[in-house]
Design a protein that fits this description.
The structure is a homodimer. The first copy, chain A, is mainly alpha-helical. Chain A contains 9 helices and no strands. Chain A starts with about 30 loop residues before the first helix and ends in an 8-residue tail after the last helix. Chains A and B meet through helix 6, helix 8 and helix 9 of A and helix 6, helix 8 and helix 9 of B. Chain A binds a DNA duplex (30 and 30 nucleotides) through helix 1, helix 2 and helix 3.
DNA sequence: GACTATACGGAACTAGCGTTCCGTTTGTCA
DNA sequence: TGACAAACGGAACGCTAGTTCCGTATAGTC
């Protein structure tokens, strides 16, 4: 179940409606239901097959025609963004909730575990991060930026508490976690890799550097 | 310059020649030169643009027609494999050379640095590892397996010397390095990420675990 | 120099996928 | 219940990229 980023039951993406004047007209009941179905089907499809899955597959899973998909989302990219933005925003919320925690080191590490869990379960998240690194023009960029700021806060606090070495950057940590969880391995293996990364960014090791 | 994995100047891939009987006939001089050109162009193209670069781009860079490319390599995949196999085999050779080294810990880490350097410079290598994780039927799989065994040896020695914790697996290390270097960042950032991974697999940290 | 197997070039074919178009259906409201 | 705007379905279009085909060119040989 995916919530609209903005208000509900509003034909935000319907570019085929009568221009800008109709932009805020409420959706008809069947249209609202279909929009929801499409979002759910798209999430399931992209999660399972990655962003390269064809729109037809999404439409079929949602039980609608492709035309209906395009009525709600003007391009495939727009559909993708609607999903990923939601997911990124949820992760953002998690950083804000965690930021209040008392042990900044453990706060950071448990967030990174959650981040890894999501990146490994949802192929599309990885794809989104990937795309964000390549071209910034995507609408997801705003959400990625906000998430980056959220993680940055957790990281700075952990550094201040001495739980993490000073010389790691937020982008590096994000790239490491996402990269680790990209090679579709067992969830267990992903968890272990995340732990290795966490250990890597802790304070100095016993071994000679 | 890419060497053929097997013998030289042999029409190994020319499926359009007169069947199996002609399989080992020496290539004509111009054909041998073109084959070499195609391999070089393909390496440059895939390195720069990833595996999704069209065959036309390779042909154009090589200064030949697409038909000529297909005369030498029956599919795009075959061309890709010819290149990646060569690169993987070189990395394998590196593991064997390093295996003789005296400080197993440093041996492993310097190999991982080299591995990361290659993965970050050559997008195609990443793609190859990616594909290998998904479907094993590819011919690259043999080379990936051999490389895995080579790294496994280095890792076991490093463990035996106490330079690396016992609970990391070869596949994890490989996935971490490749993953870290995938998100096309600066070379410098990649190096830093590799160092973080190296630290992560060293012995226990000073921080509480 | 002539002959032939080998190799070449690139137009044409094929397949997949994003997107559009338009005739048909349906929810909503008077 | 009838009218109409809103929404639907899916065939059709256009583009990209992999692969094939065949007429032409040429290296190698006698």
């Amino acid at each position: 179940m995916i919530a609209d980023p903005g208000s509900e039951n509003v034909a935000q993406a319907d570019t085929r409606a009568n221009g800008a004047a109709a932009a805020l007209r409420p959706l008809r009941a069947d249209a609202a239901k279909n929009r929801e179905r499409i979002l759910e089907a798209a999430e399931a499809t992209f999660t399972a097959e990655g962003v390269s899955a064809p729109i037809d597959a999404v439409a079929q899973r949602a039980g609608v025609g492709v035309g209906t998909v395009y009525r709600h989302f003007p391009t495939k990219e727009a559909l993708f963004e609607a999903i990923v933005t939601t997911r990124l925003d949820e992760l953002c919320k998690t950083t804000r909730e965690l930021a209040e925690g008392e042990a900044p080191g453990e706060v950071l590490f448990s967030f990174l575990r959650e981040f890894g869990r999501q990146a490994s379960a949802k192929q599309d998240l990885f794809d989104a991060m990937d795309a964000a690194g390549l071209d910034i023009k995507s609408t997801c960029a705003a959400s990625v930026d906000e998430l980056t700021r959220g993680i940055d806060l957790l990281l700075e606090r952990a550094k201040a508490a001495g739980a993490v070495r000073e010389d790691v950057a937020t982008g590096e940590v994000m790239a490491l976690i996402v990269g680790a969880c990209h090679s579709k391995q067992d969830d267990l293996v992903c968890q272990r890799m995340v732990e290795i990364v966490c250990d890597g960014i802790r304070g100095p090791t016993l071994a000679t550097r």
